[in-house]
Amino acid sequence: MRTQSEPRTTPDGRYLVVEGRLWRRSNPALGKKQRALLVEALMHARRDVGRALRSGDGEAERKARARVHRAKVALGERGPPWWTDGAPDLNRHLVENTPYATWFRGKR
Q1: Which of 2, 10, 40, 85 could form a disulfide bond with 15, CB atoms 3.0-4.6 angstroms apart?
Q2: Distance of alpha carbon 56 from alpha carbon 67, whole angstroms
Q3: Which positions ≥6 away from 31 have C-beta within 8 Å?
Q4: How many domains does the chain have?
Q5: 42 alpha carbon, distance to own chain's centre
Q6: Residue 8 sits in the same domain as residue 39
Q7: Contact, 86 vs 57, CB < 8 A?
Q8: Whether the predicted pLDDT of 1 surpasses 60
Q9: Distance of alpha carbon 105 from its chain centroid, rounded?
Q10: How far out from the chain centre does Cα 67 lie?
Q11: At residue 55, what are phi and psi to the nearest 5 degrees?
Q12: Looking at the domain assignment, is residue 63 inside a domain?
């Protein structure tokens, strides 16, 4: 059975690279307990999205997706960037179209 490898993290720790795309990491300044609570809330909301989709309940889906969004913002994965040096947010960009392209090519 093949195991999946862990996604690579950019040298500055801001992004994971998944299938050639940058995904913003959680804010490393979050405390361990705070992060765990937020991840638990995120997973619960994602399960609720699935339940709502399976049952065809549009209102429950909308509410669950809003909870997913709030948890991701609180984790720092969405919303304003958690870094403070003014660097742009490249979340969801193809790594090849970013300043990380040279680093990524060298890591393959």
Answers
A1: 10
A2: 18
A3: none
A4: 2
A5: 11
A6: no
A7: no
A8: no
A9: 22
A10: 14
A11: -90, -10
A12: yes
Per the domain annotation, does 83 fall within a domain? no
Give buried/exposed letters for 67-98 (b at 16+ CB in 10 A, else e): bbebbbebbbbbeebbbeeeeebbeebebeeb
CA distance 95 to 67: 28
pLDDT of 70-79, one tens digit each? 999 999 999 9
DSSP structure class, residue 79: S
In the predicted model, what is the mean pLDDT of residues 24-46? 97
My answer on whether 37 and 60 are in the same domain is: yes
Domain extent for 92: 1-25+88-103
Task: For the chain, state the CA radius of gyration.
Answer: 16
Q: How confident is the model at residue 107 (pLDDT cuts 50, 70, 90)?
A: low
- Please choose, from the candidates 73, 68, 70, 103, the residue with its C-alpha nearest in 3D space to the C-alpha of residue 89: 73
Q: What are 65's two structure tokens?
A: 């997706």
**Does pLDDT of 21 surpass 90?**
yes
Residue 82 lies in a domain: no
12 and 44 inside one domain = no
